[in-house]
Amino acid sequence: MINFSGYVASLETVARSGLPPMDIEKSLIDDTDIKIINDLKLLCEVFQSKFINAGIVKENSNVVFNPRFGIVSMFCGGADADIFIDDTLYDFKCTKSRGY
């Protein structure tokens, strides 16, 4: 599933930019980079700990992944989010580089 997630992420980059990747083979055909795989595993562990184990996501929770905001998003340059859980919108930002 993690390899597939890496592949889908590369497709999303193409869809959002409207441009093909500079190196199609490396971007779309090669296996997902091990660093990305390890980062995704860590993110899954954090989600398990902070959302599932902490009780934010329950068995009967209403969960929407990648909610979109229809025509209203056009006014914000194409707004979307990461996850909507029981009437709360969560948008995650991850970076290893700090600063501007």
Brief description of this entry?
The protein has helices at 2-17, 24-29, 34-52; strands at 63-65, 83-85, 88-90. It is mainly alpha-helical and 100 residues long. The chain folds into two domains: 1-54, no CATH class; 55-93, no CATH class.
Shape: globular
Number of continuous helical runs? 3
Biggest beta sheet attributes = 3 strands, antiparallel
Tally of individual domains: 2
Provide the spatial order of strands within the biggest beta sheet. 1-2-3
- Rg from alpha-carbon coordinates: 16 Å
In percent terms, what proportion of residues is strand? 5-15%
- Give the beta-strand count: 3
Mean pLDDT: 82
Helix content: 40-55%
Could you tell me how far the N terminus lies from the C terminus, measured between alpha carbons in angstroms?
33 Å
Series of secondary-structure elements, N-terminal to C-terminal: HHHEEE
Q: Briefly note the structural class of the backbone.
A: mainly alpha
Poorly predicted runs are none
Oligomer: single chain
List the helices and strands and how they pair.
Elements: H1 2-17, H2 24-29, H3 34-52, E1 63-65, E2 83-85, E3 88-90
Antiparallel strand pairs: 1-2, 2-3
Structural account:
The structure is a single chain. With 100 residues, the protein is mainly α. The protein has two domains: 1-54, no CATH class; 55-93, no CATH class. 41% of the residues lie in helices and 9% in strands. The chain has helices at residues 2-17, 24-29, 34-52; strands spanning 63-65, 83-85, 88-90. Strands 1-2-3 form a three-stranded antiparallel beta sheet, with no helix packed on it. The N and C termini lie far apart (33 Å). The mean pLDDT is 82.
